[in-house]
Amino acid sequence: GSLVRTFTPFYFLMEPMDVLSVRGAAVIMNCSAYCETAPKIEWKKDGTFLNLVSDDRRQLLPDGSLLINSVVHSKHNKPDEGYYQCVATVDSLGTIVSRTAKLTVAGK
Question: Ig-like domain location, by residue (predicted)?
């Protein structure tokens, strides 16, 4: 009884790119992963998972992309600027992590 493990394709169709934004603009960080079993998509910012459930400005789009509705940026508060990664998980297979994309907010 030999167990045959078939290779299951699991990969990113689209990964986030560096973005230059301005305060108040909407930003989309693209991410889309392919697998027969739909992957669970999460986002990390500066190495920490974002809790998008209780976030009124940031939301996960159906394809896995991250929408930031209105970029917040002031001298002392820069919650959106930083490094983003898309994390896709399929329980039976594991987790893949996208490239790191930098969101920069331009000053006036």
Answer: 9-104
The reported pLDDT for the residue numbered 5 is: 67
The Cα–Cα gap between 24 and 9 comes to: 39
Q: Considering the domain boundaries, does residue 4 fall inside one?
A: no
| Residue whose tokens read 């990964």 | 15
Contact between 16 and 84 (Cβ < 8 Å): yes
Which residues lie closer than 8 Å to 44 by C-beta, 6 or more apart?
A: 50, 84, 85, 86, 87, 97
Residue 6 pLDDT > 80, yes or no? no
Residues 6+ apart with CB under 8 A from 94: 10
pLDDT tens-place string over residues 41-52: 999 999 999 999
Residue 52 placed within a domain: yes
Domains held by the chain: number? 1
Q: Which residue has the tokens 């990664």?
A: 85
